[in-house]
C-alpha cells in the first residue's frame, strides 16, 4: 500500500529537488519482483544484512524495519523522522511534509 501511495504521488514528489526511495530487509530479487508488480517508479533498496535499518534505529524486535520516513537535508542532516507513517497516505504526507520543511523545488 505504501509503495502504491508513493507511486501515485510521483508527479507531486518529483516537483521537489529530492531523491526518494524505500528500503527493505528483503533480498534484491524479492524487492525487484515487488517493484515490478507494483510499478514502483523509484528505487527500493535491499538490505538483507539489516545493517542500514539497524544503524538508523528502525529495526523492530521481529527483525523487520519499522515504517518510518526520514527527511534528510542536502547537507545530510536528518530534519524530521515520521514514526507514524501511514502506508495509505504516504505519498500525500511526503509532499505535505516536504512543503512544510521548505524542501527546494525543481
Walk me through the structure:
- The chain is an alpha+beta fold and 106 residues long.
- It has one domain: Glutaredoxin, CATH 3.40.30.
- The chain is built from five helices and four strands.
- It has a two-stranded parallel ribbon with strand order 1-2.
- Helix 3 links the parallel strand 1 and strand 2.
- Helix 1 crosses helix 5.
- The longest helix is centred in the C-terminal third of the chain and has 12 residues.
- The two termini are 27 Å apart.
- The model has no long low-confidence stretch (mean pLDDT 93).
Helix and strand topology:
Elements: H1 2-8, H2 10-13, E1 22-24, H3 28-37, E2 44-46, H4 51-55, E3 69-72, E4 78-82, H5 90-101
Parallel strand pairs: 1-2
Antiparallel strand pairs: 3-4
Helix pairs in contact: 1-5
Range of strand content: 5-15%
Question: Can you list the strand order of the major beta sheet?
Answer: 1-2
Give the CA-CA distance, first to last residue.
27 Å
Structural class: alpha+beta
Which CATH-level-2 architecture?
3-Layer(aba) Sandwich
Low-confidence stretches: none
The CATH topology comes to Glutaredoxin
Number of domains: 1
Average pLDDT score: 93
The biggest beta sheet is recorded as:
2 strands, parallel
Per DSSP, the total helix count is 5
Total number of strands = 4
Helix content: 25-40%
CATH homologous superfamily classification = Glutaredoxin
Amino acid at each position: 500500500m505504501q509503495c502504491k501511495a508513493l507511486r501515485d504521488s510521483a508527479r507531486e514528489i518529483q516537483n521537489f529537488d529530492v531523491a526518494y526511495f524505500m528500503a527493505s530487509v528483503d533480498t534484491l530479487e524479492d524487492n525487484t519482483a515487488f517493484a515490478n508488480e507494483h510499478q514502483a517508479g523509484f528505487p527500493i533498496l535491499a538490505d538483507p544484512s539489516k545493517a542500514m535499518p539497524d544503524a538508523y534505529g528502525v529495526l523492530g524486535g521481529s527483525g523487520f524495519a519499522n515504517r518510518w520516513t526520514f527527511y534528510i537535508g542536502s547537507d545530510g542532516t536528518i530534519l524530521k523522522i515520521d514514526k507514524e507513517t501511514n502506508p495509505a497516505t504516504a505519498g500525500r504526507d511526503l509532499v505535505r511534509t516536504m512543503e512544510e520543511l521548505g524542501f527546494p523545488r525543481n
